[in-house]
Amino acid sequence: MIVQLARRSVLRTLRQPAQIVPALVFPLFLLAVNSGGLKDATNLPGFPTDSYLTFALAVPFMQGALFSVMNAGTDLARDIETGFLNRLALTPLHGAALLSGLLAGAVVLGLVQAVTYLGVGLIAGADLAAGIGGALVIVALAVSITVAFGTIGLYAALRTGSGEAVQGLFPLFFVVLFLSSMALPLELLQTDWFHAVASVNPVTYLLGAFRSLLIEGWNVPDLALGFGIAAAILAIGMTAASAALKTRLVRT
Amino acid sequence: MTRKIALAVAWRSIHNFLTNPAFLAPGILFPLFFFTAFAGGLSAIASAPGFDFDGGYTAFQFVFVLLQSAAFGGVFTGFGIARDFETGFARRYLLAASNRGGIVAGYAIAALVRALITWAILTAVALVAGMEVGGNGVELFGLYGLAILVNLAATFWAAGVAMRVRSIQGGPLMQFPAFLILFLAPVYVPLELLSGWIHAVASVNPVTALLESGRGFISGDPTLVAAAFAIAAVLPVLFAFWARGGLRRAEAAG
């Protein structure tokens, strides 16, 4: 049953170009604009690389994860609106298994996104200090983050039951992304309050994990922090979504 | 009569977005957010070699966000027009109005009021954040004058799309080109510091002249004034034709 649900989720994602195309094009467009427009930032003392493209290449992975929130949440909200979730509730499927099946589409989308971003970035001239092994870890980290963020989309959908409400989360996540070390390294953020916010923003450390592989090579503490944060978001998101699923099924 | 129609449409649109936080908040919060993220997060860029803008990075980014909010004020009004078509209210306008150009004019007035509210808040926040203003009253009038013309152009653009598509699903069509043309201008650093393809694109992007002129106004060192106002004056005229075409399509669709 869970395999069928996962298959449905994957096919549904792949059959909706309106979900895939913006998730690929929008982050790459911003990468192109920012890496061209902020090239001079590499001349700042303390900037970790002489290629802004390499520095900025971490960002699309995070933006891709934001799209995963929207896509996973919108799909589930549609299932709620059409009554499909109620039919699933009649099956003996466990809540966590049901949610995992629904996330299969996010896994595939995360994989497609990660390979595309990395491929385009490398073709455009970005460095990859950690080599081929690093590329595999980048893809694994990107998929982990995409799935972790996808659980937040599921939670939002289960709480609200509305695709429109899930879409409304996009600006909020965009804010979280921007208030991080997205454009400059943490040490170069001069505005005190911005530095303070970015220091406690988990996105800063997720970006740091990608950047460690792209710029430095193998930095185990940064990688462990990145994977750890992704695992924590996944655990919190899954727990919250499971609880919301129970509430919703009781409600219906 | 046209004036009465325009004022009636404007009043309803203004009332709608002022009384519904879901419509009002994005138009105000997005520019504030971009201003905060760019001016706060990227201030170190002003220390890059060759960055010689006199007014400081806050003022440098303020002009971009001002023009961006002008454009998006028009785009958000386009969303309202599309919504009016979806709910059938726009068809009632078409039936009731003797001069239908007044309908578009009414939406344009509403878009301007919306933008003025956003600019008042944005300017206050920028001043509190320590923005340096080197320009005199006339120069600042020039800056806001440019923003008004951009707002008008964006409103006509979005209205043209909304009246052709007549559904909120046309939202990305209104929004994406505006987003694209704005971000293909010198957003983070002056044009001289851009290199490669982005420099080539920004050099021929009309928004570049608007941005550079606006930044000149705020720093008290006017530049490209004639070119900027020529562009800013031509755009609303061109998009007015586009909007009129959209109105004709909507009329034909009944």
Describe the fold and architecture.
The complex is a heterodimer of chains A (252) and B (254). Chain A has 252 residues and is mainly alpha-helical. Chain A has one domain (2-251). Chain A has helices spanning 2-14, 17-37, 52-56, 58-82, 84-89, 95-102, 104-123, 131-160, 163-167, 169-178, 192-200, 202-216, 220-251. Chain A is elongated. The two termini of chain A are 22 Å apart. Chain B is elongated and about 60 Å long. With 254 residues, chain B is mostly helical. Chain B has helices at residues 2-19, 21-41, 56-87, 89-96, 101-128, 137-165, 171-183, 196-204, 206-219, 225-253. Chain B has one domain (2-253). Chain B is built from ten helices and no strands. Chains A and B meet through helix 2, helix 10 and helix 11 of A and helix 2 and helix 8 of B.
N- and C-termini, Cα separation of chain A: 22 Å
Question: What is the chain-wise order of helices and strands of chain B?
Answer: HHHHHHHHHH
Terminal residue distance of chain B: 22 Å
Secondary-structure-based class of chain A equals mainly alpha
Radius of gyration of chain A: 19 Å
What is the tally of beta strands of chain A? 0
Assembly form of the protein: heterodimer
Global mean pLDDT of chain B: 90
Estimated helix fraction of chain B: over 70%
Whole-number tally of structural domains of chain B: 1
Main interface by residue count: A-B, 28 and 32 residues
Content of β-strand of chain B: under 5%
Count of discrete domains of chain A? 1
Number of helices of chain B: 10
How many distinct beta strands of chain B?
0
**Which segments of chain A are poorly predicted (pLDDT under 50) over 5 or more consecutive residues?**
none
Characterize the main sheet of chain A: none
Shape of chain A: elongated
- N-to-C order of helices and strands of chain A: HHHHHHHHHHHHH
